[in-house]
Write a structure and sequence with these properties.
It contains nine helices and 19 strands. By secondary structure, the protein is an alpha/beta fold. The protein folds into two domains: 215 residues, TIM Barrel (Alpha-Beta Barrel); 79 residues, Membrane-bound Lytic Murein Transglycosylase D, Chain A (Roll), CATH 3.10.350. It has an eight-stranded mixed barrel with strand order 4-5-7-8-9-10-11-12, surrounded by four helices. Helix 2 runs parallel beside helix 3. The protein is globular.
Length: 353
Amino acid sequence: MCFLIKSGTCWLGSRYNICMTLFGTDQSKWQADTVTEGDFIILKATEGAGYVDSSCDTKYQMNKAAGKLLGVYHFARPDLNDAISEAKFFVENIRGYLNEAILALDWEQPGTQNNVDWAKAWLDEVYKLTGVKPLIYMSASVVIAYDWSEVANADYGLWIAGYPDLRSSWDLPEFHYSTGAWKFYALWQFTNSHGSLDRDVFMGDKRAWRLYAKVYEKRIETPEKAELLVERELLDFDKPEKEPKLKQNKDAKKETQVEVKQKAKPEKRAASNDDNKNSKTKQKKTAGRLTSVEGVSGESIKSENGEEYYVIEPGDTLSMISLRFHTDIMTLCIWNGIMDPDLIYAGDKIRVK
């Protein structure tokens, strides 16, 4: 899941305009245990296959309580260990932060930065273990020194470090670096304060940050309440004007569900012989699979090319649908052009696999 930076505009895929930037810091034990200014904080969690930063959890919990967006990173040591063991060590120590924090690989150990295969193996292993795609941090010089196309094409976002000057303020300088194999960067560390605070800018809004961290896939209480913490503050997309929202059901259980609109059904007409003939084709099953993508509410339908569709019925939520078909809300939104995950329509046919 990537965000395209083009002419100062941020996009999720090519659908969602989220033109906002956030500012924050990345820290380790060298900085004080305080709540710092900015929108987010990214903390060093581990290094190699045996080191855990002793200040990580203290800073994490303090900043979490203060409402900061969160991230954790691992400092790679390809000179000492293999990628898989370091990935497993990192995941074991940050399990409590999953679906809350962006994950990242700090790629700056001298003499090993050409080992692209090691970095890719670490990223792949963390993704396999967590379902979250980490970012990779590196200096602007390393970005262009080696071929990172395999990493970029696998959709691991870039966190680039480049310092146009020696500023230590939040004033954002002009970006004049190459992003190499990446079409854009997700994060830019634009200051290096030598033991004080490294300042970063994130090319997206709070919703975009949470999508990178897969906050919306954090299961809470029961599957019925797994609407993935979709806070109203994040739903900034324009609502369709053609139909007003239905009023919320008074039933308390409905408060946790995404609202589903009921489309008006067309008037029935007398069926012709051709219609009757076609309807048999639409309902014909082959090895348990429907051969057409037509269907009625609540059905799971597979097309000839193997894609699977579902017809939304009243009471459905995207979270319930994602759980049923073992996918996630973000993927459903991208596949089906859903601009607002809080608004779906009964009777619509959507792709689920």
